[in-house]
Every structure is written in C-alpha cells, then in structure tokens.
Amino acid sequence: IEMETDCPWGTEAEYKLLGNIDLLVGGYATIALATLGVCANILAISVFCNKSFKSNFNNLLVALAVFDLLFLVVCITESVRRNFEDRSSNTSSFSGLATQIHHRLFPYFLYPLHNILLTCSIFMTISISIERYLAIFHQSAYRKRSCLWTLSCHILPVIILAIIINIPKFFESKVVLEDDHSWIDVTDMRRSFEYSVYYQHWTRFIVLGIFPLMLLGFLNFRIFIHLFIFKSSTSKEVASFIITLLIVVIFILCHLPRLALNFYEALDSENIGQCGPPVWSMIFHVFSNSLLPVINSTSNFFIYFLAGKNFRSSLLRMLKCRKEPEESVFSKSSVICDINSDVCEEGKEVTEMEELENTKLLRI
Q1: Partners of 181 in the β-ladder
Q2: How far, in Å, are 46, 83, 234, 235 from residue 358 at the CA level?
Q3: What digits encode the pLDDT tens for the residues 320-353?
Q4: What is the per-residue pLDDT for 2?
Q5: Is the pLDDT of residue 9 over 60?
Q6: Best-predicted range by mean pLDDT among 96-110, 111-125, 137-151, 264-278?
Q7: What is the pTM of this model?
Q8: Which of 127, 106, 67 lies closest to 296 in space, CA to CA?
Q9: Cβ contacts of residue 291 below 8 Å, gap of 6+?
Q10: CA distance 193 to 190
C-alpha cells in the first residue's frame, strides 16, 4: 500500500488529454501522413528507376525509399489497431473476424516487421553516408564497384543486421484465444525486468541510437571538412553530399526525441516497472515513437523534389505520361553534360565513377 501511495499517479484530466492526443496525433495525423508518405515514396522509386538516374548513390536512395514505404504501410496498420480496433475481437461479425486476423498477424509478423523496417531505415541512412564517404575518400576502389557490389555490401548487410537485432521482438507478444474472442497480450519475457533493462532500453539505445548518431556524425563531418574547408571537390560531389546531409539532419531531428525517451526509461526503469510510466512520458511517446518516425520516412521525397531540378522535371514528365528525352543523337562513347543540369547523357564506356560525377541530383 505504501508503494502505491508513492507512485505519481496522473489525474483524470491528464489521462483524458492523453487519450485525445493519442487519437488525434497517433491515429488520424499518423495515418494521414503515412498515407501521404506511401504515395510519395512510390513516386520517388518510380523516378529513381529511370535510366538517367542510374548510379550506386541513387540505387541506395531507392532501397531507402522501399524500406520507408513498407515501414509506413505497417505504421498505418498499427495506428488502426491501437486507435480504431476493439481490444478484443469477436468472430460473430465481419469486423470482429477481421480484427482477429489482425491479432493473429500481429505478434509473429506485423510487430517484428515494424521494428525490422525501422531498423533498416536507420541502417540504410548510415549505409548512404558510408557510400558518400567511399566515393570521396576512396575513389580508385569506388570506380570498380558494380550494382551487385552495392547490393551485397550496402543493402543485404542492412537487412541481415536488422533481422538479427530484432529477433527478440518475435517473442514479446502473443495472441490469447478464448472461445470466439481474441486479444493481444505481452509475454512473460517482455514483462521481465532484466529483459526490459538490458535489451529493450540499453541494447536498443546503443545499437539504434548512440552508434548510428556517432557514425553519422563522424562520416558527414569528415566529408564536410573535405568538401567545404579544403574545397577539393567537384560540384557534383557537393550536390550528392548535400542531399545526404539533408537526409541525415532530418533523420537526427526525428529520432533524437525517441532516443531521449529511451534514455529516460532506462535510467528510471525500476520506478517505471513498479508504477508504470508517467502521463507526460506516454504523451511524449505518441510524438516520438509514432508521429516523428512517420515524418522522417515521408520527408525524403520532398528533399528530392525541392532540391533536385532533374527529379522535379522527371517526376512531372512521368505524371504527364511523357517519355524521357531521347539520347540516340549522341555517339555510344560520348558523355555530354551541362554543369547546370542534374543529369547528363551517358554512353556505353562511362565508368561508374564518371557516371556518378556526371549525375547531379541537386541544382547548385
């Protein structure tokens, strides 16, 4: 009884505010932004798949858009489940049957997939920065790289690491079936104090928080010094780095609140385990873990659109059902590029590095 009186329980008004914020922000706003992001990422993938955008850098942007697209789709299903579905399903009605199917998919598919895709998005941002670092500081090795090399060294490791890190997520929740009713419950492992502290808080805080931030900071700081302080670069290298930097900055801004909340929960884990999280942290959680990751996965398209002249023109041509400009008037071995254009004509004998240098996503 004494322990209960020491717990800082929220007031009825605070819990009502939490419910309203969860419905408006975690429900309607998140679903609307995620739907916009799904459409935006589909458009970005369609544009980057054009031959004129073919390069290792743009291939990684396609991979990032695919991860973000799938993440947003799962975010929509999760927002619907948390805000608009009944906690308990009844198979006597069609909506109840659909809810039960969702319940069966959640513990062993949707919930782990949600975490895997978020991890893929985080590591893919790191992979893009590593690609820019290699393109600038190790150009001789970069010229020899192929699309297969990009897939095996930049994309597959991201997927494999994301799955390994999130294996415990497959064992955190379960479906409880009783007669015609079903609901989702957490497992004993997830309730374990040791599991919450060492994996949920500290392991994920370091692996998905501190490590990505430190690595992104190191890579992009070195590139920034090389490009803007020593000025030993071309305008094409600067253009590719600027788009990478914008992606990284928005990534950090959208994920820092989540990391801050995770750090607080790790420090106060004993008290939270006894009394539950305070109301302010649950309100903060709606923004940091629901809305901001969706904003991050939606925003990259607008970076490309606002900063890339060629991206805009290719997108408008695609929406108007116009074909890309023909390149047949040039010889097969020619490379003709205007420094003020985003994409140059490329020939058969162009190396990957030359192609990258002649491909400009941003207009300077």
Answers
A1: 90, 178
A2: 21, 48, 10, 10
A3: 887 766 543 333 333 333 333 343 333 333 444 4
A4: 43
A5: yes
A6: 111-125
A7: 0.83
A8: 67
A9: 25, 26, 29, 30, 33
A10: 8
Distance CA 284, CA 287 (A): 5
Q: What pLDDT digit, counting tens, does each position of 175-196 carry?
A: 998 887 888 999 999 989 899 8
Tokens 């919450």 locate to: 196
